[in-house]
Amino acid sequence: MRSRTRPVGARAVGSLEVLVRRSESGKDDRFVVESHPGMKVLDVLVAIQRDHDPSLAFRYSCRVAMCGTCALRANGTSVLACQSSVPSGAKELRLAPLAGLPVLRDLVVDPAPFFARWAAVTPYPVPDAAVSAPAVVRPDSPERRTIDPALDCITCGICYSSCSVSDEGRDFLGPAALNRAMVLIADSRDTMRTERLARIGRLDGIDRCHYIGACSACCPKRIDPFDAIRRLRRWRVTGPPAAGAT
Ligand code: FES
Fold it and tell me: Does residue 128 share a domain with residue 79?
């Protein structure tokens, strides 16, 4: 049976063969669904679960690329299922769980190793407790221009999954945690900047990066962890940037 994936009013333009990696068998199950213009990978999964196999496990929540829970691999590339469109004219789609994280069931992975590394960089600002009103950093300052493009991480784990160093299970903080560390070290109001630099300079830190750049190429929020790691390597030598100068 073909399943209907299209929203009300959308025109079906063909059929799509979907191969989904299943955890129980370790093999791909094959399904056929209707395709329509603008169809997202998440639409395909919902249709399969609704019309073919209610036991298929996958995660999603917000459907607008904000919560990061729907990350998976589509045709070998890590993407957000709710954001990623099925290529127009595609006849086949291969879906698998994110790489580099333990699979709980089907397309659902355990993000605990990712968040353990995120937690290792103390991912929140530590202001000076003696200062009641922190200094204002102007929106157009060099400091803000460094921080703002790196702020929108949704901790989806896609960069971590796409990083060949993390993927091999090596001891590496990974791109998301290092990007977060860069944001906090760039913030002149943070009181832990020297300690943060020492932390990311340990064996599992910035020197593990092989400068391949897959993290930046695949980030669904267009964050550039590769550039963050370059900055961190510079600051390790120069020390944390002075206020207003990054
Ligand atoms: S469902 Fe929230 S990011 Fe996709």
Answer: no
- Please indicate, yes or no, whether residues 101 and 125 belong to a single structural domain of this protein: no
**Both 141 and 50 in a single domain?**
no
Q: Are residues 53 and 155 in the same domain?
A: no
Radius of gyration of the chain (CA): 21
Over residues 134-179, the pLDDT tens digits come to 677 788 889 999 999 999 999 999 999 999 887 656 789 999 999 9
CA 62 to ligand 1 center in whole angstroms: 5
Is the pLDDT confidence value at 3 over 80?
Answer: no
How many domains in the chain?
Answer: 2
In angstroms, the CA 139 to CA 210 distance is 33
CB 18 within 8 A of CB 51: no
The mean predicted confidence, pLDDT, of the chain is 91
Question: Residue 63 above 70 pLDDT?
Answer: yes
Q: Which atom of ligand 1 is nearest to the CA of 80?
A: 4
Ligand 1 centre and the CA of 84: distance in Å? 10
Report the separation in Å between the CA atom of 221 and the middle of ligand 1, taken as the mean of its atom positions: 12
* Last residue within a domain, chosen from 109, 124, 139: 109
Phi, psi angle pair for 20, to nearest 5°? -115, 125
Ligand 1 center from residue 71 Cα (angstroms):
7
Residue at 50 is within a domain: yes
- Considering the domain architecture, whether residues 193 and 86 belong to the same structural domain is answered as no
Locate the ligand 1 atom nearest the alpha carbon of residue 65 and give its number.
3
Ligand 1 environment, Cβ below 6 A: 60-63, 65-70, 80, 82
6 located within any domain: no
| Domain interval for residue 185 | 112-238
- The pLDDT value recorded for residue 167 is 64
Q: Which of the 8 DSSP states describes residue 149?
A: G
E-only strand ranges, 103-246: 103-105, 108-109
